Amino acid sequence: MKGFIHYVASHKGSVEQAKQSYDSFVKHGWDVELVEGITPETLVESEFDYPLIKGGRLIGFRSENNRTYQIKKSCLSNQIRLWRKVVEMDEPMAFIEHDAICIAPYNNDSFDELLCLNIEYAFQPPSVLGTLSHLKGYKAPLAFSPKPLDIGYPLRYYKSNVYKNHPMMPGTAAYVVSPKGAKRLLASAEKYGIDQSDFFINTHNVNIEYISPSPVKFNTKNLNTSHKL
After folding, report:
1. Distance between CA 175 and CA 106 in Å, rounded?
2. Where does residue 160 rank: exposed (0-12), middle (13-18), buried (19+ CB within 10 A)?
3. Residue whose C-alpha is closest to residue 139's, from 126, 150, 131, 148
4. Phi/psi class of residue 171: alpha, beta or left (left: φ > 0; alpha: ψ in -120 to 50)?
5. Which residues, other chains included, contact 12 with Cβ-Cβ below 8 Å and sequence gap of 6+?
6. pLDDT above 60 (res 69)
7. What pLDDT, in 10s, does the model give residues 99-137?
8. pTM here?
9. Is 20 exposed, middle or buried (0-12, 13-18, 19+ CB in 10 A)?
10. Neighbour tally for 16: CB within 10 Å
11. To 10 degrees, the CA torsion angle through 206, 209, 214, 216?
């Protein structure tokens, strides 16, 4: 499986974690590349000229804190760039963040549109979700082959727009997206508008599946670059 590990070139910790991530994926047979991620300093707004969905988190950041808005849009833009590449090359690829650590080979080509690779660890520290009382302790049922999010999945879009109540990604540390899924995400961005990455990747816009035990976990230290770079 082809994967792209994104990191912040100006952040020493991000560079170090990306190298650790790279080594872990190569060890388990992945074909991965390190990619210098988009930041507010390198973001070209015209390259990602999509509407912001009304009532969403991203549009709220734009009016409340422009720096946070720029950081969050940069995070999403890295993924939009990958989705475009998936469509162009017509093959599934993985989006990987610098703090993702691979612990098992990939052998799940049967997924439909988007496959979450780290759900087993997404609700445990050092993940931010693992510190929230209403989410802490959630454990996805075992799924040795790709399976939709279960009915008890607690993380749902809560803003008041067309995405409301739809299950959404537990962060975007590691997932594989198919050409079909990438096309749906890009079409949704144009039709409905974009939001913060993990909010935008919800079941209204793409079929989210997972596997567990998960082949990817987190690095032991959360650098929290999506909040403060």
Report:
1. 11
2. exposed
3. 150
4. left
5. none
6. yes
7. 999 999 998 889 999 999 999 999 988 888 888 877 877
8. 0.95
9. middle
10. 15
11. -10
Q: Where would I find the beta strands (DSSP E) of 92-207?
A: 93-97, 100-102, 114-116, 143-148, 174-177
Looking up tokens 């990958």 gives 82
Instruction: Quickly name the fold that domain 2-228 has.
Output: Spore Coat Polysaccharide Biosynthesis Protein SpsA; Chain A (3.90.550)
Instruction: Output the CA torsion sign for 79, 216, 157, 75.
Output: negative
Beta strand 174-177 with 2-7: parallel, antiparallel or unpaired? unpaired
Task: Return the SS3 of 188.
Answer: helix
Annotate 1-58 with three-state secondary structure.
CEEEEEECCCCHHHHHHHHHHHHHHHHCCCEEEEEECCCCCCCCHHHHCCCECCCCHH
Which pairing describes strands 114-116 and 208-212: parallel, antiparallel, or unpaired?
Answer: parallel
For residue 155, give the nearest of 143, 172, 142 by alpha carbon. 172
Is 59 in contact with 196 (CB distance < 8 Å)? Answer: no
Give the residue among 183, 170, 85, 71 at the shortest CA–CA distance from 128: 170
